[in-house]
Amino acid sequence: MDNKSSINQQLSQLYKDHSGKVLATLVRLLGDFDLAEEAMHEAFSLALGSWDTQGIPANPTAWLISTGRFKAIDNLRRKKRFGELASDIQQQIDELEEHHQNLSQQDIEDDQLRMIFTCCHPAIDPQIQIPLTLREVCGLSTEEIASAFLVSPSTMAQRIVRGKNKIQQTKIPFIIPEINELPERLDALLSVIYLVFNEGYSASSGDSLLRIDLSSEAIRLARLVLALLVDSEVMGLLALMLLHESRRQARTDLEGNIILLEDQDRSLWNRAYIDEGSALVQQALATRRFGAYTIQAAIAAVHAQSQGTTDWEQIIALYSVLLQVEPSPVIELNRAVAIAMRDGEQAGLNIIDGILARGELQDYSKMHSTRGELLRRLGQTSAAITAFEQALDLVKQLPEQRFLQQKLAQLRSQ
Amino acid sequence: MQYMLLIYSDEQNWTEDERQDCFQKSMCISAELAAEGKLISAAPLHSVTTATSLRIKNGKRHITDGPFAETTEQLGGYYIVDVDNLDQALEIASRLPPAQKGTVEVRPLFPLPERLTN
């Protein structure tokens, strides 16, 4: 490989590794997203020209920040010449020139955390928090994000611009929240990461080969947050995602059809992810300040570690704790399944019918497919068919439709 | 940076005692904000039944009795505060009594060029 293409390849890896850090610090120094992005791109293009002759510097992040800062001063001087509010710009240039001192590793890490909290500020629409975080923190391009969410690049660009305008115009502060606000703000941040993960995890097959892997991005983001901020729920969420991700290869067949947990080929499960996820669960539980993500991860860990027989007793106990932390009919439904596995189908069915009688989850397809499966196992074929038909009416994703159609075909042929 | 805090709630949903209590607490908060140099102005509004709306069509004034739009929550008062950032404005909004019963909408004021304000 010639030197130029090797530098190009290294540079694209360096972009992935460093652009988030460089941008975060430049946003703090410049107080402006657009100026910072412009300066960062100029710094990377200068790097392309200079590093292949002079070699990659020992601390590329520091080099890029410092170069970006000089570029920003140049750009501001040029603006000043065109007479835009000259006194404000001069003040900004003076401030920037004072920032000569070397940035510590801690400064750079704090800036990244500021960036994450700013992009996930509750004043920003959740539909915008997600792409904004992927772009400004993970360094993905607008085109990559657009294709991941199956919208046009121009629609996605508009959303991102709206987010940046909201930050700029309403002056959302570029800070790490105070300790009293941290739990609430961290919740918002973790839910963004989990939404990114689920978007990637549930992505339909087919063109997914061309789409960037949102699940990996979410895991990368959670690792980054955990490195910056040690918190039990961050561990819990990272563990939960790793444990789900460990089954990715096994959860569908080659045609993209769903394979249920109990029928999956366990040799396809990713052991490294399971081990890392399980260790994180233990670590989070040991803090005794864990929440819903940790408990869900603990349930996933029990499933992942089961060799043939599942410890339903423990799973039911964990669901009971989860219900106390986060009361929800969906969790009640999951607990009912575990109870059916321990005490028999009728016991699970009684709980499920209780939830439906309260008027809850009537439009939730999993509610009806679960009911259908329990009825099928009890030999109540016609009631099972009705339940699966109700589920089929409610699902939108193609693999799930196929799964239900197969179930119905089997039942009708009996 | 200046922010306007617009207070919306259902006017019918307040007892006389609650109204008085809200008034007292709001006066205290205004006094605190003024002492900190953060208050630009604040006022409760008369009931939405006193609203008059005007629009001009084909050069002719159309005046109607009532608010811009009939909604379940109505604009009942406002604050204009001068603080450093949105988080500080939201912190003030969270202390206003109507936040418990209705909604406080926080909007930044568009800063006018100095030559217009002088």
From TrEMBL, chain A:
InterPro entries: DUF6596 (IPR046531), RNA_pol_sigma-70_dom (IPR014284), RNA_pol_sigma70_r2 (IPR007627), RNA_pol_sigma70_r4_t2 (IPR013249), RNA_pol_sigma_r2 (IPR013325), RNA_pol_sigma_r3/r4-like (IPR013324), TPR-like_helical_dom_sf (IPR011990), TPR_rpt (IPR019734). Residues 79-109 form a coiled coil. Pfam families: DUF6596, Sigma70_r2, Sigma70_r4_2. Residues 185-284 form the DUF6596 domain. GO terms for biological process: DNA-templated transcription initiation. Residues 14-81 form the RNA polymerase sigma-70 region domain. SUPFAM superfamilies: Sigma2 domain of RNA polymerase sigma factors, Sigma3 and sigma4 domains of RNA polymerase sigma factors, TPR-like. GO terms for molecular function: DNA binding; sigma factor activity. Gene3D superfamilies: 1.10.1740.10, Tetratricopeptide repeat domain (1.25.40.10), Winged helix-like DNA-binding domain superfamily/Winged helix DNA-binding domain (1.10.10.10). Residues 117-167 form the RNA polymerase sigma factor 70 region 4 type domain. TPR repeats lie at residues 365-398. Keywords: Coiled coil, TPR repeat. PANTHER family: BLL6612 PROTEIN, BLL6612 PROTEIN-RELATED. This is RNA polymerase subunit sigma-24. It comes from Paraglaciecola hydrolytica.
From TrEMBL, chain B:
Gene3D superfamilies: Dimeric alpha+beta barrel. Pfam families: YCII. InterPro entries: Dimeric_a/b-barrel, YCII. Residues 1-111 form the YCII-related domain. Belongs to the YciI family. PANTHER family: BLL7171 PROTEIN, BLL7171 PROTEIN-RELATED. This is YCII-related domain-containing protein.
